[in-house]
Input
Amino acid sequence: MCTKSYIFSIIIIRNIVSILNKKSSQLKQDSIHFSNSYLTLPDDFYTKIKPRIPSKPAVVNINAALAEELNLPLDYLNSVKGLDFLSGSKIVTGSDPIATVYAGHQFGHFSPQLGDGRAILLGEVIDKRNKRFDIQLKGSGRTPYSRGGDGNAALGPVLREYIVSEAMHALGIPTTRSLAAISTGDKVVRERILPGALLVRVAQSHIRIGTFEFFAARGRFNDVASLADYSIKRHFPKLKDKKDKYLGLLNTITLRQAKLIAKWMSVGFIHGVMNTDNMSISGETIDYGPCAFMDEYDPDQVYSSIDHQGRYKFSNQPKVVPWNLSRLAETMLPLIAKKPEEAVPEAQKIIETFETNYQKFFEKLMVRKIGVPFSKSKNDRKVFGHLQKFLNILKDQKADYTNSFLTLENHLTGKIIPKAYSTPDLNTQMELWLKDWISMLNHMNLDKKDVLKNLKVSNPRIIPRNHQIEKIIQKSVFNIQKGRLDFTAFENLTRVCSNPFKQHTNADKLILPPLASEKVYETFCGT
Ligand code: AMP
Ligand code: MG
Output
């Protein structure tokens, strides 16, 4: 190449680089387009407040897949400006941070004054599919609703919420999600001093049953109506022009809850704090505190350290929801009829649909876990009865819930059951069940290939087990206390749990149920 054309090429390259640089700095400034509809509600719904600036923020993890869905460029999130945004250190253009107010029934008792005590909503964004999402910082300092709390989150509960919410999403369960976990560099005082962190949480909205209760408890039904109208516009726009739109709202929320809880029950998920302030009207799982996936199958299982009476034990979850929905219905009675008592029968009727819908969704998911499509089982009570017998055997034998379902594939194909599974003993009871199961499948004329497919798509190979989460938390806390930002173990578990139906190599340890010495008997909210 001659000197002249060489120089010419260099000039062209420089120009291209400078254009790209300009573009990328522009991108970094204008990367997030906020559109904050919650601010259209009356002032009493929130307080404007800035997040506390962390002393030494550092990225623990950024969720690249979610960033992509939300139209947030990863190069921006990974930049210094991105960290400023994710840690709440700088408020970007368009963000108008608020803490929202709510009330709630906590373990059956009404608390009239709650709210975002340790969370701040940065604003709302529109994702690639044109859906609206909240971006909220959890653990970002005190707010007017903190009461006695410090507004902080420790690293452990942040990692727990990150892993479990992303696992739930991958299992196809509606949930808030985790865009990032940030270490704050600050200390949090609990029973001991712990490293601080914050979670960047993404949700379809943060409207809770408790948000309705806050205004209803004060007799402010105009505000309840504003909230109901806002909820309809944001989540259920089809109801907008309906004559009975508030009954429609109650009905849709009830249906979504029935679907949600059926999904929780099918994977053995225990929320732990199903208070009305922790129940989102969008139908997403929200507020991962002392939640856990069950290891041994036990309908009475409770993990939460604060659930002394077992109010939110595994088998009570579908029973609690109608109670919570009744609290929601009460807030809307004056919107439905001039004389609220006249609206009771219709509201009651809607809440009663929860049970039948829940049962339908639950059966649909559960019969598929033993390989049978719902279309073949819905008129045949034998199939669900058969499933129930299987659950009874698991209960008697204290067998692992998740892995016991995985063995069915092996029984069907004659493959050896991996040692890691630790499942029911092949005693007479179980052998009889398997024999009956095979003859039932034959009797129904089901194609073996279809049965296998049903088993594969409805039985996760991996769930985030409590003892693994605890190990990861301990490792991460230890590393951070030694000044090391090493979250490899956390990333590894998050990665496999984000693909739960896949056969992962070298993941035996994560699939194994806990040894007696590893069992976690209690989980904590970490507040
Ligand atoms: P939760 O049990 O996590 O659903 O929280 C119940 C209420 O307590 C909510 O209003 C929270 O905002 C508030 N809260 C929980 N932990 C803290 C904390 N560390 N600081 C301030 N408020 C908190
Ligand atoms: Mg909560």
